[in-house]
Write a structure and sequence with these properties.
single chain; Rossmann fold
């Protein structure tokens, strides 16, 4: 129930619409009652059983006074123009009342539409905003496919199962109240008797709702696994085909989708049980009402055939909205597991938090200092529990260039991720100009760094937009100049649409070297104080590496830089090399100094020379 109430909070921005919805649904309910109440007199006139009241009754808001007044005027019309005119009069009245009834019903839905669309839109925006705020550590613990599933099918399930129920909640309660008031006015005792079966219906529906909620939760979890599997399949299609593993991948997918099939089958069967069950209970209730009402009709002088017909007609109309409310109950149960999965992300308390009074920073003025930094993806109680980064200490002065060298998994990339606060250190501090980076505005801090990774991240769109990514105040000429410096301008001009060429998902229309040069052009345009190169050329062939290295050398000119290196030939000219082993700095110096030590760096260098 708490989840449902949290979802309802999304309605608050639409308070004005709610007022109109309530107003029009009340009017819809009133006009529905009046249009239904004309059925009984229509039948009375048709079968010549109209009560002939010659004296105009004194009007009051009792059901008997309204009926007597109506029959008085019917008598006047019949006396003057005959029963046919009375039938026409009643029929026209019913048409007019029904028209206004449905007009108000539509107006209620008209003002409800912005709420349904708005709630879904705002929920998706909140979810996306949270996703881009969460640190990289969150994504190392969750599968990408499962996250995409929460953003897609879970949000859609909430719309189908919960948000769509707003229509029922905003209309049917008013309709039921209006019908109940009318029924109580017609026959108090018969109305109470007809409501006896409601607790039984409620209990049965509760059982169905629990079953649906339990199975829906399991279904969404399996769907998340399926999304992850599809994502892995598309990303690894070359490997799957290359290793002739198509049948293996297909069997794995079929196993997961069969589990989803079995759970969905249960949901559909239980869900469909509700309709027939409610229908049966409704018919039983209707028959009980007709039997008891008929008995009262035979014994009571005040309860006549007209009132009985009116009661049955109104009671028949109360069943559909009552049925709809009950149906909505277990429909909501079906959507709550999806809402829970959405709020697991929205409530994730792993956001990199900014200081309450953050300091603005525009440039690196002096130095960057790592002071006894420890880090682990899981929060530990003490530095000794950290297994990723262990006691890192070094100083990078403005204008210097250092290289981080070491085997894969030694912690090189994690060190530069800590600098940009993609993760926060577990213990120790990182200082920029003698101030802890946690005290800076996060956006200002990250603007100091330009990042060029081995795995280039490009987006579906034009080359121009990819180079200018994240910037709205740059001209086309500035983009072209950055591309020239990055040795990308020539190959861009050879493309069909040049800078307006769509490069496809993740830039797949470009070669590895071309993608890397676009990434370098992006960094040049950003003009950062500190450049971070994370194995920027390790995945390129020799020819592409030479072209990209020329662009990198231009980019590095007179700039502070941290270079995560795999190919040691690219770092000969740096001021210092830090050799990382097991999350620790084990050696520090320039190339010649480290070679003389004949330690880890020496062995690493020799292995590369042998591989050549």
């Amino acid at each position: 129930m708490k989840l449902f109430l949290r979802l309802i909070k999304y309605i608050f921005p639409f308070k004005g619409n709610i007022v109109f919805i309530i107003l029009f649904n009340i009017l819809y309910s009133i006009f529905s009652i009046f249009s239904l109440s004309l059925v009984a007199p229509f039948l009375s006139v048709l079968f010549s059983q109209t009560q002939h009241i010659t004296t105009k009754p004194e009007f009051s808001f009792s059901i008997h006074s309204i009926i007597d007044t109506f029959y008085y005027y019917m008598g006047v019309i019949i006396d003057k123009n005959g029963p046919s005119s009375a039938l026409i009069y009643i029929a026209v009245s019913m048409i007019v009342l029904t028209f206004f009834s449905n007009l108000f019903r539509y107006l209620g839905q008209y003002f409800l539409a912005p709420i349904r669309a708005g709630v879904l839109n705002n929920m998706r925006k909140d979810l996306y905003h949270q996703l881009i705020k969460l640190p990289l550590s969150f994504y190392s613990k969750h599968k990408k496919g499962d996250i995409l599933n929460r953003m897609g099918s879970d949000v859609q399930e909430v719309e189908w199962s919960i948000i769509s129920s707003l229509q029922t909640f905003c209309r049917d309660p008013f309709l039921i109240m209006a019908y109940l008031i009318a029924l109580l006015k017609v026959s108090y005792s018969l109305t109470l008797i007809s409501l006896v079966l409601l607790p039984i219906s409620g209990y049965l529906i509760t059982l169905i709702g629990k079953s649906i909620q339990r199975n829906s939760s399991k279904a969404q979890q399996i769907l998340g696994k399926l999304s992850s599997l599809i994502d892995e399949t598309i990303g690894g299609l070359r490997i799957i085909k290359g290793y002739n593993a198509i049948e293996h991948a297909n069997r794995k997918f079929q196993q997961e989708t069969h589990e989803h099939y079995k759970v969905n089958k249960k949901i559909f069967r239980v869900n469909e049980l509700g309709g027939p069950m409610i229908e049966t209970l409704s018919i039983i209730t209707m028959m009980v009402v007709m039997i008891i009402g008929g008995s009262i009709l035979f014994k009571s002088s005040s309860f006549n055939g007209t009132l009985f017909i009116m009661f049955v007609v109104i009671f028949a109309r109360i069943i559909p909205p009552a049925k709809q409310i009950v149906t909505v109950f277990y429909t909501i149960k079906k959507g709550l597991p999806s809402a829970k999965r959405i709020y697991e992300i929205i409530d994730a308390d792993e956001v990199i938090k900014e200081d309450l009074n953050p300091i603005s920073v525009q440039h690196l003025n002096h130095q960057i200092v790592f002071n006894n930094v420890f880090f682990d993806y899981k929060s530990g109680e003490n530095p000794e529990s950290c297994s990723v980064i262990k006691g890192i200490n070094f100083t990078l002065k403005k204008g210097e260039k250092i290289a981080l060298v070491g085997a894969s998994g030694s912690g090189k990339s994690t060190i530069v991720d800590l600098l940009s606060r993609f993760y926060d250190v577990s213990f120790g501090t990182i200082l920029i100009d003698d101030i802890d980076i946690k005290k800076y505005k996060i956006n200002d801090l990250r603007s100091l760094f330009g990042i060029v990774n081995q795995d280039v991240t490009l987006f579906h769109g034009t080359i121009l937009n990819n180079i200018a990514f994240g910037k709205t105040d740059v001209s086309r000429e500035q983009v072209i100049e950055a591309a020239k410096i990055a040795n990308a301008h020539d190959f861009i001009l050879e493309m069909d649409q040049q800078y307006d060429t769509i490069i496809g998902d993740r830039g797949m229309k470009l070669s590895g070297g071309q993608r890397q040069r676009i990434s370098i052009a992006r960094a040049i345009l950003a003009n950062p104080d500190v450049l971070i190169l994370d194995e920027a050329t390790s995945a390129l062939d020799n020819e592409s590496e030479q072209i990209v290295q020329q662009a990198i050398n231009t980019l590095l000119s007179q700039r502070t830089a941290i270079i995560v290196a795999h190919r040691l030939s690219t770092i000969r000219d740096v001021n210092r090399i830090l050799f990382i082993d097991g999350g620790r700095i084990t050696e520090c110096g320039n190339h010649d100094q480290l070679m003389q030590l004949k330690g880890g760096y020496f062995n690493y260098y020799c292995r590369q020379e042998i591989d050549k």
